[in-house]
Specification:
This protein is an alpha+beta fold. The protein folds into two domains: 56-547, no CATH class; 705-828, Jelly Rolls (Sandwich). The radius of gyration is 30 Å and the shape is globular.
């Protein structure tokens, strides 16, 4: 495992968590460079294009990892079942097992010296469960046909939840940059397993240390992170690629409790399987899973399991004290994953169980002593298993209150609609209203679901399922109460956590019609209602799948290679707005000026979360703390100050290293890059240089040929957005441009393009560009260039977007902001010009990006 100091950029170390990114070597260069250019950083060779991650990584993360996680959870579930009296149904074992593993990982990371043993502790618990429950395993195996439908529901829930990644066929994660909290969970999971809940050594000067401190050292809930990190690092796979499979797995485990609740309502076989699937992946839940809301997804499985334990109360309320262990573990896991706010849902279950327990005591079915022993054992187990949360209860409560009252709506443009709790939302995102036609159909399906809920409620009460009815009623009370007293952000989370309960009740309406189908006239009605419920969810999920933006695999592969190559040589300043770099560059003590937590020394220069990043705005003296600068490869952007030389270049990124002993520039003057510099301006800088015995260094302006999109021909449906041209649907853009000389040129596109577009010049197809996203409209994403041989004169550029297909993200981002050309190779690189102060006139009349006054070494 990576040592603490190396993670925070305090000492050289190169260990990683099993990343398989191929290192990108630099091509040899035979170009000559002048002595002065070498002194101030001449051009370095480029690395070959980043290779796509091997298919084995996709198989490992999307298929092998969830299978291993399932075995871990099943084994732990069997162990809990054995201890508690063997009453848990098979469909509940994975969720209860996950709860046990969360408790174990929370305790092992709290005892931070043994945190690195967490993955092996999870394995030990699973093995113990399989060994102690081997008779039950042998008994269940031959009966697989009896539970094939419930297993099918769980597997299909996983496939639907991970569909964008599965059908992309590459390691990635969905809804890229919609909610960058997932970046926090990645770096947090890595940190907790490597170093435990021990924060006194954190370096708080840069972003990575500040993020860990701001979240996890303030009692932020980490239950899902410790299970995620412990299970993924067991296989030594990159957490960035295991994150979405973990979310999909945790959501799929919720299908087991839903199945059992539907069985109690009277559905079975294929009916229960379809109902469990559509309830588990209802539209709002699916949307939250796509954006990686790992805390809420984990808590959802626990909430539904509490409902099942209420329904199964006869199996354990009258049992020995150990019979309450599953309930205690689920409570502890929910509190660890979501925080003390999970107590609202615990109270709903406890209220029903307390009524049942009191009724049993009053009726003489259960002794007072046994009841008190059971309650006491549950309380003690819940306290111990969530000890890291309870030990700092005031801090946990403060975090919950801060989240509950925040005015920050996160990634929500407007508050969610109450209508969304009904499971259907015919829109590309849960954040926006359905379009005309889709909105009317959404209302119609919502009305059908509401009627089904009424039928389901009547059915549950008439069938004397009073504990279930009480739990559902109190769940709705929790939803309404929290909505009344919290803000937009928590309202949305509460709506999502309540949605499966509402949809579950609607499927109770299907059970009601089936129960009444002894009258053959009602038999088709049950089928039609089931079709409406399942169909509405399926179409809603398909629309979100269609519009999901997938993270760029090759670009993060390249970042991982940079982390390997330069680990321990930080701190590093990261100039791109991409907080997933916190994980990928964890060995460089990385800081990002416009991250949520910028470096403390540069915080005053930040434009806000995700704002435009401009390296020229940072005084050269403030950069002396950063031996490395990692920036996107973008010829339209200024190079770093002259104290830095290009150390490495890949397909997507450049790494600039500060030369040993290089002094910071006395002044750094930013120029237009297009207008010639006047002699009067040069003279003033020369006078300053002479006074300080310094010299002048000028960065040559890049040769850019810009293609005007304003004057281009394109479909009328392609409209100007807040930023750039939005390519709505299929079509072709044509724009002319002119180059002054013949040669080889690189064509650069800037924007956000998920579905591939074809690029041609003068009818010659150069290639296609797709899946290249930056995730931030404030900072145009510069895509990999396409090369073309051109003659001097005018040419015609064509960019074509094809029609719709079923690929994931086909309806994702399609935004074109800029197009420009640069001379290929060395001819297109920025060069430094170094002149003594006495020769200042030689700089007059030329265009530069910037000029510095630099002390003579």
């Amino acid at each position: 495992m990576l040592p603490t100091a190396a993670l925070l950029g305090l000492s050289p170390a190169t260990a990683r968590d099993g990343d398989t990114a191929q290192e990108l070597g630099a091509r040899a260069s035979s170009r000559r460079r002048s002595r002065s250019a070498e002194q101030f950083g001449g051009a370095m060779p480029s690395a070959p294009s980043a290779e796509r991650l091997a298919p084995s990584m996709f198989v490992l993360t999307a298929l092998v990892y969830p299978a291993v996680l399932a075995l871990l959870c099943a084994g732990a579930g069997l162990l809990v079942d054995r201890i508690s009296g063997r009453f848990l149904p098979g469909a509940l074992l994975p969720v209860v097992g996950a709860a046990a593993l969360i408790a174990a990982s929370q305790l092992s990371t709290y005892a931070w010296p043994v945190a690195e043993a967490t993955p092996y502790l999870l394995v030990a618990l699973a093995i113990a469960g399989f060994v102690l429950a081997r008779r039950r395993v042998r008994a269940l195996a031959p009966r697989w046909r009896a539970w094939r439908w419930q297993l099918l529901a769980v597997v299909l829930a996983y496939v639907v939840a991970l569909a964008p990644v599965l059908f992309a066929g590459r390691p990635t994660f969905s809804s890229y940059m919609e909610l960058t909290d997932s970046a926090v969970h990645m770096i947090g999971a890595y940190f907790l397993i490597n170093h435990g809940q021990h924060y006194t050594h954190l370096d708080l000067s840069n972003s990575i240390g500040r993020v860990i401190n701001a979240y996890y050292d303030t009692s932020y809930p980490s239950g899902s992170d410790t299970l995620f990190g412990g299970s993924a690092l067991l296989l030594r796979i990159p957490l960035i690629w295991a994150f979405q499979p973990f979310n999909a797995f945790m959501l799929a485990t919720a299908a087991g409790p839903v199945w059992l609740l539907l069985r109690r309502m009277g559905l079975d076989g294929a009916w229960a399987a379809v109902g469990a699937l559509s309830t588990t992946v209802s539209a709002l839940v699916y949307g939250y899973e796509l954006v990686g809301s790992v805390k809420e997804i984990t808590a959802l499985a626990m909430i539904l399991t509490l409902g099942v334990l209420v329904v199964l109360h006869r199996r354990w309320l009258r049992g020995p004290p150990t019979a309450g262990l599953p309930f205690a573990l689920v409570v502890a896991a929910g509190v660890s994953a979501l925080g003390v706010g999970f107590g609202a849902w615990v109270l709903a279950a406890v209220a029903v169980l307390a009524a049942l327990l009191i009724d049993g005591v009053l009726a003489g079915r259960q002794g007072v002593g046994r009841s008190l022993a059971l309650v006491g054992s549950v309380a003690i187990a819940a306290l111990v298993c969530a000890w890291p949360t309870w030990i700092d209860f005031s801090g946990s409560l403060r975090v919950t209150k801060n989240i509950a009252v925040t005015s920050n709506a996160g990634n929500l443009y407007t508050p969610l609609r109450t209508l969304q709790v009904l499971g259907t939302w015919l829109s590309a995102s849960y954040q926006i209203l359905p379009r005309a036609g889709g909105l009317e159909l959404t209302y119609a399906l919502a009305a059908v679901t509401a009627i089904a809920c009424v039928l389901g409620a009547v059915h549950v009460i008439r069938s004397r399922q009073l504990p279930l009815a009480g739990w559902v009623a109190l769940m709705l009370v929790v939803w309404l109460a929290l909505t009344e007293h919290t803000t937009t952000w928590i309202d949305a989370k509460t709506l999502m956590l309540s949605s499966p309960v509402v949809v579950l009740l609607a499927w109770g309406g299907v059970a009601a019609l089936r129960a009444a189908s002894l009258c053959r006239a009602l038999a088709p009605a049950a089928l039609l209602l089931a079709f409406a419920l399942a169909g509405g969810v399926a179409v809603s999920d398909a629309m979100q799948y269609h519009s999901s933006n997938l993270a760029p695999t090759a670009r993060y592969d390249e970042l991982a290679s940079i982390n390997t190559r330069f680990a321990g040589r930080g701190p590093a300043l990261f100039t791109d707005f991409d907080e997933y770099a916190l994980y990928e560059l964890r060995g460089l003590d990385v800081g990002g000026v416009d991250f949520t937590y910028p470096p403390t020394a540069l915080a005053g220069l930040a434009n806000g979360h995700g704002g435009q990043i401009d390296l020229d705005r940072i005084p050269p003296a403030d950069l002396t703390a950063y031996p490395l600068i990692v920036m996107r490869r973008d010829p339209s952007a200024s190079r770093p100050p002259s104290a830095y030389s290009l150390a490495w270049q890949g397909t997507y990124y450049q790494v600039w290293a500060r030369r040993g002993g290089a002094a910071a520039a006395i002044t750094h003057v930013v120029l237009s890059g297009t207008s010639p510099m006047r002699c009067a301006s040069v003279r003033r800088l020369a006078q300053l240089a002479i006074a300080d015995r310094a010299q002048l260094v000028a960065a040559g302006a890049p040769e850019l040929v810009r293609v005007s999109l304003l004057g281009s021909h394109h479909p009328a449906g392609w409209t100007r957005g807040l930023v750039g041209l939005v390519m709505n649907g299929a079509g072709r853009l044509s724009a002319s441009f002119e180059v002054a000389r013949a040669g080889v040129w690189d064509v650069w596109l800037q924007g956000e393009i998920m579905r591939a577009v074809r690029v041609s010049v003068d009818g010659r197809q150069l290639g296609s560009i797709g899946g290249q996203l930056g995730g931030d409209l404030h900072n145009p994403n510069t895509m990999t260039p396409l090369r073309v041989q051109l003659s001097a004169g005018r040419h015609l550029l064509s960019i074509a977007r094809g029609g719709a297909d079923l690929a994931p993200g086909d309806g994702g981002s399609a935004l074109l902001e800029h197009v420009f050309l640069t001379p290929a190779g060395a001819a297109g690189e920025q060069r430094l010009r170094v002149e003594p102060a006495a020769r200042w006139r030689s700089l007059c009349g030329h265009a530069y990006d910037w000029v510095e006054v630099v002390p003579v070494a």
